[in-house]
Design brief:
By secondary structure, the protein is of the alpha+beta class. The protein folds into three domains: 1-36, no CATH class; 43-100; 113-168. Helix content is 16%, strand content 41%. The chain has three helices and ten strands. The chain is elongated, with a radius of gyration of 25 Å. It starts with a helix and ends with a strand. 20% of the residues are buried.
């Protein structure tokens, strides 16, 4: 091994040994003239979903209360296509060009009525939804037709009225 390599290795080891965070030196940019790119910050947007096109040409968009339109992308956007016309709160990042990458979403309304969004479970009192916060909400009025959907994510409206309507939330 050449002396210059030995001295270089010794210098690197001494710098790493003298820092409180040895990984900071190893994870920094190799070229100091190149900036470190910030990681995208998470954002929340809310509005109504609209879907156009089919297959690979499908476009899922969210229109907020101010009329702003956001193209939604990412794996969760495929599930959002199943709630066309629904109101949602979506969390994700603005790191797509163009668009908003959806990490997760909650359906808050369908057909102009408030909605519950959760996973269907069978309970002693009939059927219930396990909501994203972990709470369980018994939904009276869901018929036995729902038994085949136990374990599936769905939206439900009319849980506090006589007419209960539901739909599956799944990737299309």
């Amino acid at each position: 091994m050449k002396r210059s390599r030995i001295f270089t290795a010794a210098a690197v080891l001494s710098v790493v040994a003298c820092t409180d965070n040895p990984n900071a030196i190893l994870t920094g940019p190799i070229d100091p003239s190149q900036p470190i790119l910030p990681s995208p910050s998470t954002a929340t947007i809310a509005g109504r979903i609209s879907v156009s096109g089919i297959g690979a040409d499908r476009v899922v968009e969210l229109t907020d209360a101010d009329g702003g339109v956001y193209r939604l992308v990412g794996n969760e956007s495929r599930a959002l296509a199943s709630v066309d016309g629904g109101d949602v709160v979506a969390r994700g990042t603005f790191d797509a060009n163009p668009g908003f990458v959806v990490d997760e979403f909650t359906v808050t309304g369908m057909h102009g009525r408030p909605a519950l969004d959760g996973v269907l479970e069978a309970s002693e009192d009939g059927f219930a939804l396990r909501l994203s916060d972990g709470s369980v909400r018994v939904v009276p009025g869901l018929s036995s037709d729902c038994a085949e959907h136990v374990g599936a994510r769905m939206w439900v409206i009319g849980w506090d009225e006589s007419e209960v309507v539901f739909g599956l939330i799944e990737a299309l």
